[in-house]
Every structure is written in structure tokens, then in C-alpha cells.
Write a structure and sequence with these properties.
alpha/beta; seven-stranded mixed β-sheet; 38% helix; binds nicotinamide-adenine-dinucleotide
């Protein structure tokens, strides 16, 4: 099988040392593709190209409306190729095709959003006491940006990084996760077709600990934007200290879904399932802790278990499939290990708790939707991010207890509340130490709204105007309208 190359400085190239990596379909663990597997030298080459493209090339100098036209063109190309991109995403990541279709549409929307935003007014003017001075603030691109993304939303995370980065005039190097490079490669074919100048956007393939680390540590890279696990985020932050890079981190979560007794029962029930089982639970904002009003537990939990057990698990390409496989056999084993740990600590499953190996699923990484009850706050399954279809239930009696349980985590990415009392809902949301919150819904994500976490869920925000801000420097310009001699040094008089 011929290997798929990287895209550096406007050219498709193999890894410098010829190394390749096999890419698999998680639904059956069969070989999907072979791709270039770059090393440190490739990372250095990409950084060198980006540095030159930023310091001498046309992209950062181009007027915003012209840069926007490239992004609009790219968005149109994504739409034109949407079906093929969604199918490839499902083959490589495993998620059901209907979810992959949402991701592709959102990715195109993200490029359009930032294409529009960059042509809107930016900056400020200010008045100071000295009438001779006119002040203004202009925004400028940060420079060379390394962008490292995970495997759970391969195309969408590429868009969240590239769209604001490129709109702002930066030269971007995208580093996809090792196991899911395929839609990024297709995206870069479209970037090539849209005609972006060489070095404005590059695709660097290879292992995180080598090429990712090289981006984070390089003195020539001005900003690093990372989405992934908290442990990796910590390493990236440390590596970035050499040249005091700008750092934005979107990390993990253990987000609460709080259901009060006065919530619409059926709505809350379906969202509690959607919160955790959408995307196989491999979602940073997954509602992986159901914080449930004790008053309705006896009715809610059996219904939740019954409905969750009926979720159709299968190959994402099968139109009947509602939940796909986990990304790799190793990740599946990690998730099954958490399930064992939960049982070992005395929690009980009321649904799932095992691998699914029926018929054709035997070769894939399928885990049944799993729900744990009789949990205690100190249990590993309650404290750690499992990143799989495993829900832990915690019961509360008062509003204060619900808030306390919800905030009892090192993470702070997201949280949802279900209640028919809007005042109570808003009260609780305002007390959540989390960056993304929802009332009577869970998961909707908008290009217009800032995305990111409190506490160990990250630093900075993506999306919305905040997302563009993270890719812009801020410069004050002070203009003397009436230059006159200062008379400060007598010798200059
Ligand atoms: P990961 O941290 O292992 O890998 C993410 C990326 O970092 C990959 O591209 C990987 O190659 C790279 N990487 C690994 N080690 C590196 C190093 N030392 N230096 C530089 N780069 C390195 O995470 P993952 O397993 O791919 O993704 C799952 C994690 O991502 C979960 O913890 C999840 O919560 C998190 N996530 C967060 C968000 C968010 O928006 N907050 C979104 C998606 C995923």
C-alpha cells in the first residue's frame, strides 16, 4: 500500500527517514491506510518553512478580506466533499456516520465563521491626557503556531485550530493524532486546491513525543495550541517555557449532568444518555457523572438502564448504529480496566460493563454502554476521566449538595442542569466551576461561543471572538500629532 504523505511548504512529502505508520479502522481493526511518520527533522523543516512564510511570505501581510476569501473557498470545498469526508472520518475514528456528518458541517461552518470575523472591526483607539497624542491598538498575528490535536474529532479539531489561526494571519503547523490522520490529509488536499501560499498551513505527521514535543519546545514557534489529555498538556506547557510561547490548552473533563426531580423526566432521561454515550463517551465534554436527585432515582435509573441497554452498538457506517467502537484496542482495554476498577471498589453496574463481541463486532473495539451506581466520591471511576461509554451515578438530596458534588473534581470543562425551575437552573449553572454550561440541554457547541475549561481542563478559549483573540497579539501605537522639541537634555537644545 502506497503511503500518504505530509504537506510541508506547499508540497506533499514522505518522512525524511522514510518512516511510515499503519492506520486502522476501529470497527474491525483492519488496515485502512499507511501514512508518512515524521520525525524531529521533519518537524524542524516544517518550523523553518513556517518561520520564513511568516517573516517573509505573503500570508501575514495579506489584507484580511483576501485571507478570508481563502477560508471561504476552503469551507465551500469541505461542503463539496462532505460525504466522502464524513465516511472517511467514520472509518478512521469509528463514530457513527450521522455524527461524522455533523462534524464535517461544523468544520466548514468554523472556517466561514472566522473568515467573516476577521473582516470585522478589530482594535481600539484611546485618548490620553496629552492632546498631541493619538493612541490606537492594533491586533497582529502571533507568528508561527504549532497546533496539536487528538483523535476524537479529527477534522473538527483541525478546523477549530486552523480557522482562527489562519484568519488572524498566522502560519500554522497542524499535528494530528497518530491514529487519525486521514481526514486531515484530505483537508490539506483541499487547502492545496484553495491555493493558500506555501508555508501558511502545513500538515506534520508523526508521534506526539517527537514531532509534537519538537513543536512545543522550538524557539522558532511563537504559540502552541493543544487539545488532548491533561498529562500531555502538562508536558507541552513545560516544553513551551523555553521561549515563553503563548499556550492554549483544551484538556480533559469529568463533567456533571445534574438532574433535579422537577425536570421534564423524558427530556432529562434522553439527554443523560446523550451526554455520555454520544461519541462513545470519547468526548472531552462528556456528561460522565450523572448527579441525580434522590427523589426520582428509583424511577429514573431503571428507565435509564433499560434505554441505554438498547443503544445499537456497531460499525459507524451501518445506518442502524447509534454508538461506535472505541479508538484502539489499547484504549478499549483501558476503559475495560476502569470498569474492573469500579467493580473492585464496590460500585455496581446496572447496564453494560463488558466488551461487545457479537458476530461481526468481535474484531472491533466495542464496549457496551455502562452505568455504575452505588458510587462514592473517592472512587477512581468517579474521579478520573475514563473517555469511554461509562457513566457514574451520584445521588443528592439538596441543591447545595448537587453543586458540591458537581464541583468536586480537578476538571472544569462542562456541565449541564435539568430542571423546570429556571431560576434554580441558572443559580446552579453560575455556581459550576466550568467553562461550558447548558440548561435543559447537553453538548450543543457553537462556533460563536467560547469553548474551554476552568481548573485542569485547560487554559484559554477556542471559538467565538475569544478564539480569534488567542491567535492575535495586541500592539499599542502612540502618534504624536504635533512633534516639537522635547527640551529634556540641555545638550540637544
Ligand atoms: P493525547 O494527549 O494523548 O494526544 C493528543 C495529541 O497530543 C496527539 O496529537 C498526540 O500525538 C500529541 N502528543 C502526545 N504526546 C505529546 C507530547 N509529549 N508533546 C506534544 N504532543 C504530544 O490525547 P488523546 O488520547 O489523543 O485524546 C484524548 C484526550 O483529549 C482526552 O483526555 C480528552 O479529554 C482530551 N480532549 C479535550 C478536548 C477539549 O476541548 N478540552 C477535546 C478533545 C479531546
Amino acid at each position: 500500500m502506497k503511503s500518504l504523505p505530509m504537506f510541508l511548504n506547499g508540497e506533499w512529502i514522505e518522512a525524511g527517514d522514510g518512516a511510515t505508520r499503519e492506520v486502522f479502522n476501529p470497527a474491525n481493526n483492519q488496515l485502512l491506510a499507511v501514512v508518512a511518520d515524521g520525525g524531529e527533522r521533519d518537524a524542524e523543516a516544517a518550523i523553518g518553512h513556517a518561520r520564513r512564510a511568516f517573516d517573509e511570505g505573503p500570508w501575514p501581510q495579506m489584507r484580511a478580506p483576501e485571507r478570508a476569501s481563502y477560508l471561504f473557498k476552503l469551507a465551500d470545498l469541505i461542503d463539496k466533499n462532505a460525504d466522502a469526508l464524513a465516511e472517511l472520518e467514520t472509518r478512521n475514528n469509528g463514530k457513527p456516520l450521522r455524527e461524522a456528518k455533523y462534524d464535517v458541517a461544523d468544520a466548514a461552518g468554523c472556517f466561514r465563521y472566522y473568515a467573516g470575523l476577521i473582516t470585522k472591526p478589530l482594535g481600539q483607539t484611546y485618548e490620553v491626557g496629552d492632546p498631541a497624542i493619538q493612541g490606537m491598538v492594533v491586533r497582529e498575528p502571533v507568528g508561527v503556531c504549532g497546533q496539536i490535536i487528538p483523535w476524537n474529532y479529527p477534522l473538527l479539531m483541525a478546523a477549530w485550530k486552523l480557522a482562527p489561526g489562519l484568519a488572524a494571519g498566522n502560519c500554522c503547523i497542524l499535528k494530528p493524532a497518530e491514529v487519525t490522520p486521514l481526514t486531515a490529509i484530505e483537508l490539506f488536499k483541499l487547502i492545496a486546491e484553495a491555493g493558500f501560499p506555501p508555508g501558511a498551513a502545513q500538515l506534520l505527521l508523526g508521534p506526539g513525543p517527537t514531532v509534537g514535543q519538537a513543536l512545543a519546545a522550538s524557539m522558532q514557534v511563537d504559540k502552541i495550541a493543544f487539545t488532548g489529555g491533561t498529562v500531555t498538556g502538562r508536558k507541552i506547557m513545560t516544553a513551551a517555557t523555553g521561549n515563553i510561547k503563548k499556550v492554549t490548552l483544551e484538556l480533559g473533563g469529568k463533567s456533571p449532568c445534574i438532574v433535579f426531580a422537577d425536570a421534564d423526566f423524558d427530556v432529562a432521561l434522553e439527554y443523560a444518555m446523550f451526554a455520555i454515550f454520544a461519541g462513545q463517551g470519547e468526548v472531552c465534554s462528556a456528561g460522565s457523572r450523572l448527579i441525580l436527585d434522590k427523589k426520582i432515582a428509583d424511577k429514573f435509573l431503571p428507565r435509564l438502564a433499560e434505554a441505554s441497554a438498547k443503544i445499537v452498538v456497531g460499525d459507524g457506517l451501518d445506518p442502524m448504529t447509534e454508538m461506535g467502537p472505541l479508538i484502539t484496542p489499547a484504549h478499549m482495554e483501558k476503559v475495560l480496566g476502569y470498569i474492573e476498577a469500579g467493580r473492585g471498589e464496590g460500585a455496581e453496574t446496572i447496564c453494560g460493563g463488558h466488551r461487545v463481541t457479537d458476530g461481526a463486532l468481535a474484531g472491533g473495539n466495542f464496549v457496551a454502554p455502562t452505568i455504575f451506581v452505588r458510587t462514592r466520591p473517592e472512587m477512581k471511576i468517579v474521579r478520573e476521566e475514563i473517555f469511554g461509554p461509562v457513566l457514574v451515578v451520584q445521588l443528592f438530596e439538596t441543591e447545595e449538595e448537587a453543586v458540591r458534588l458537581a464541583n468536586d473534581t480537578i476538571y472544569g470543562l462542562a456541565g449541564g442542569v435539568f430542571t423546570s425551575d429556571l431560576g434554580k437552573g441558572l443559580r446552579v449553572l453560575k455556581k459550576l466551576r466550568a467553562g461550558v454550561t447548558w440548561l435543559n440541554t447537553f453538548h450543543p457547541t457553537f462556533n460563536e461561543a467560547p469553548w474551554g475549561g476552568y481548573k485542569q481542563s485547560g487554559i484559554g478559549r477556542e471559538l467565538g471572538t475569544f478564539g480569534l483573540d488567542a491567535y492575535l497579539e495586541t500592539k499599542q501605537i502612540n502618534i504624536n500629532l504635533s512633534p516639537a522639541k522635547l527640551g529634556w537634555f540641555g545638550s540637544a537644545a
